[in-house]
Amino acid sequence: MRRRRVAGLLVALLAVPACAPKVKRQPLVRAAPPATEWPRPEVMELAERAWRCGWQSGEFSYPLLTVIDYSLPSTERRLWVIDMVNRRVLDNELVAHGEASGGNNAVEFSNRVGSHQSSLGLFRTEDTYVGGSGYSLRLTGLEPGVNDRAMKRNIVVHGADYVDSGVIPELGRLGRSHGCPALPRAVARSVIDLIKGGSALFAYYPDQQWMQESQFLHCGGVLTAGR
Q1: CATH no. for residue 138?
Q2: Inside any domain, residue 222
Q3: What b-and-e string marks burial along 196-207, b requiring 16 or more CB atoms within 10 Å of the CB?
Q4: Which of 27, 30, 75, 163 is buried most, with the most CB atoms less than 10 Å from its CB?
């Protein structure tokens, strides 16, 4: 029995790129969420491409990937937390976008301070703190000109009462943030504790300029997905 367990662990670890840094922390074990659907294949392909590039360059401490698909309306569960070693969806939640990015659908994105728009691209999760929005998670934007002002803009993961399915009948959408990926208050702490401290967060929208210029989407060759 022990030999089979060891063999299974070796097979799982082989799924991580050979040049990956030493894993400092293993993903938390969680039951599968009620919604087990994955991101759309074309989005997941780009997210994994970006994650592998960042992983190989030592940007992340452990192999969790959070994917936000801003091309979906805010009324859909468009945030996923994925264990990249065991290929499991650990969580699937609602997430808000910035108030200046659009109504139910986000259509505009920015790296500018004061824009109140969401940012695209690859981020690294950092430490937590308690501020005006409660328990929150800092993010470092890894893409120059795209999201690298995330810290200066105070773009963080936090919980909010306006991110709740109960507001949808009245508004026709979720409430909106000042650019932060805000989560339902009831799950914010558990999601933040799951992904904090050096995992990847990938925010997607089919912006052609970003997809063609992102260093993380061209790490191992020419980008073909998402065209």
Answers
A1: 2.40.440.10
A2: no
A3: bbbbbbbbbbeb
A4: 163
